[in-house]
Write a structure and sequence with these properties.
Elements lengths: L6 H11 L21 E9 L16 E9 L4 E5 L2 E3 L1 H10 L10 E2 L3 H7 L2 H12 L2 H150 L2 H94 L9 H17 L6 H62 L2 E8 L8 E8 L5 E2 L7 H15 L7 E5 L7 H16 L5 E5 L13 E8 L2 E9 L1
Parallel strand pairs: 5-9, 9-10
Antiparallel strand pairs: 1-2, 2-3, 3-4, 6-7, 7-8, 11-12
């Protein structure tokens, strides 16, 4: 039928009944309802007779399976299968089992889609082919594995995030736990230090008492020594006093004898002087009698002079002896003084040592009393600890420790439980992350394996597809190939058609390089080459010969007929506005659509 007669509406109705939601005619299905009507219904009849003992649609016991789709103006739509309401998901699943997808242009190519197919991206083109020929499950398996992998990756990322948060929390609570453990250690150490402090006082007092005992022994030895020295000093002083008395007596005797000698010397000297005076007077007499007296006086004078001379030696001797005695007396007095001073000093030292010893004994009694008290207190604190440190040193450490404990005053006893809880969470997350890493590894292997299987199937398809594609193109004076691009990338892999006519080297098919007729021929050649692989029992193409000249239209028609004839169980709908040389052997049904008085009319002019 001619353009605008309503041919495409038949294919559109078929597609809507098969579940297509969006159409090129309208974005809302309610817009497809005939003007003036409130509802529309399209019913498809499926041959459901058993094939090799099994019905194509096993859920139906009827030889004819009825699938209806109802549309209402208010926007409500539903499906009925054998007059029973069924959800669309069941219809999609049923048709999918038969290989029918009304949205795949390789199965149902609506008006304008021949041109549109040239604009489809290589990636989408490959997916359309996969779905049409039944390779879609292989892609689905890859996608399912990738979805599971993405799920694992997402879960891994979530777990890693949780692990990082748990690690941060754990780091905080580990610090709190360490602080709590430190606090416990410090508390325990403080207890130990308190015991050490208590016993350090005991040790200190014991040391003091021991030192006091040693000091007392030393003082007693000192007293004994001082006493001995005092006695020796007294004995020595007594001897000095005896010597003093002895030399005093000798001094007095010598002094008396010296005085006597000096008195006699003075008397003798006076007599000599008197004798000299007398001699002088007597010599003046110059008489015999006078001479006698002179001789007598001279004799007496000589005797006196001799006596004076003798007394002189004696006086010198006595003076020397007195000087010697005085020296000895002076030395003895000095020795006596020194002895008295030394004795007094020794007596003072003795008294001081004696007083110090008495004081030490009193201090020892006090220390013994304090020691007993400290021992009693220390025994209550803990068992004896022997330490060389002083109480002050231990107290200083306790003060420092107290400052550290004050800094840890904010640490709660719950830190231990909280840390263990976070530690368990962290360990669980690490274990879970390890499991996820292993799952990821297995899924990566599975994805790669499934990609390899998928890629193998696609290459296997293309190997056969290229033979048919090249053969069909050669029959219309062309050559080309269907090639896989980006095979290394599952996401970017696509199908690219190349074609060249009349000796021109094949070039990639696009909307700009080839003419409209060349594009139509190329796409139909590709569709026909694909027919042996498509799973759907129903296929359709609207205006397959768009832009084709009469010769190519007829060539394509002959190729279509010959190709479809190879697959006897396939229902193939071809829509064209032009005239075709049809014979009863070419087609099973010929439907002519005409528009008369503004209304479309359909007539079957040929039925096989």
């Amino acid at each position: 039928g001619p353009n605008g007669a309503g041919k495409s509406s038949i294919l559109l109705a078929l597609s809507v009944a098969l579940g297509q939601t969006y159409t090129e005619r309208s974005r809302r299905l309610s817009d497809l309802i005939r003007r003036g009507e409130e509802a529309a219904r399209v019913t498809l009849l499926f041959d459901n007779r058993p094939v090799k003992g099994r019905r194509p649609i096993p859920g139906s016991n009827s030889d004819v399976f009825r699938l209806s789709r109802h549309l209402r103006r208010d926007g409500t739509y539903w499906f009925e299968a054998d007059y029973r309401h069924v959800p669309k998901s069941d219809v999609v699943r049923l048709l999918s089992n038969l290989g029918i997808n009304p949205d795949n242009m390789l199965i149902i190519m609506h008006q304008g889609m021949v041109e549109e197919f040239a604009l489809v991206s290589p990636e989408q083109r490959l997916q359309l082919v996969e779905e049409a020929v039944g390779l879609h499950p292989y892609r689905q398996k890859v996608l399912e594995a990738q979805t599971r992998l993405e799920g694992v990756l997402s879960e891994e990322a979530s777990v890693e995030k949780l692990l990082k948060e748990a690690e941060e929390n754990l780091a905080y609570w580990r610090e709190q736990h360490e602080r709590y453990q430190r606090k416990l250690q410090l508390v325990e150490k403080r207890k130990t230090l308190e015991v050490e402090l208590a016993w350090s006082y005991v040790s200190k007092l014991e040391g003091q008492l021991e030192s006091m005992v040693e000091e007392a022994e030393r003082l007693k030895r000192k007293l004994d020594k001082l006493f001995g020295k005092i006695e020796d000093s007294k004995s020595r002083r007594r001897k000095i006093m005896d010597d003093l008395e002895k030399y005093k007596l000798e001094f007095n005797v010598a002094l008396q004898r010296l005085v006597d000698a000096e008195r006699l010397d003075a008397s003798s000297r006076a007599k000599i002087e008197f004798a000299e005076e007398v001699l002088a007077r007597v010599k003046l007499l110059k008489s015999i009698e006078g001479e006698k007296w002179v001789r007598k006086i001279e004799d007496e004078k000589s005797a006196l002079e001799r006596k004076v001379e003798a007394l002189k030696d004696e006086i010198e001797r006595f003076r020397a002896k007195i000087g010697e005695i005085e020296g000895r007396l002076e030395r003895l007095r000095s020795q006596n003084l020194e002895a008295r001073v030394a004795e007094a000093l020794l007596e003072y030292q003795f008294r001081e040592a004696e007083a110090e010893l008495r004081k030490l004994y009193r201090e020892m009694d006090r220390v013994r009393e304090e020691l007993e008290q400290r021992k009693s207190e220390a025994e209550k604190v803990g068992s004896r600890i022997y330490t060389s440190r002083s109480p002050q040193e231990v107290s200083e450490e306790i003060k420092v420790l107290g400052a550290h404990l004050a800094a840890l005053a904010d640490v709660s006893e719950e830190a231990e439980k909280t840390y263990q809880r976070f530690l368990k969470t962290y360990e669980d997350l690490k274990e879970k992350l390890a499991i996820l890493a292993e799952n990821k590894r297995r899924l990566l292997e599975e994805v790669e394996l499934r990609k390899a299987v998928w890629l193998g199937k696609v290459k296997e398809l293309l190997l056969d597809l290229n033979q048919s594609y090249g053969k069909i193109l050669s029959s219309v004076g062309g050559r080309g190939e269907v090639r896989l691009i980006n095979p290394q990338s599952f996401e970017k892999a696509g199908l690219e058609l190349t074609v060249g006519f009349h000796g021109v080297p094949p070039r990639k098919l696009d909307a700009y390089t080839q003419s409209g007729g060349e594009r139509s021929v190329t796409i139909m050649a590709f569709l026909l080459a694909l027919q042996g692989h498509i799973a759907s029992p129903i296929r359709a193409v609207d205006e397959f010969d768009v832009h084709c000249d009469p010769r190519n239209r007829e060539l394509l028609w002959r190729l279509t007929v010959s190709t479809v004839r190879e697959f006897g169980d396939v229902q193939y709908i071809v829509i064209t506005p032009g005239q075709l040389p049809l014979t009863s052997e070419d087609v099973d049904n010929v439907i002519v659509v005409q528009k008369v008085g503004g209304k479309s009319q359909v007539k079957i002019v040929g039925e096989g």
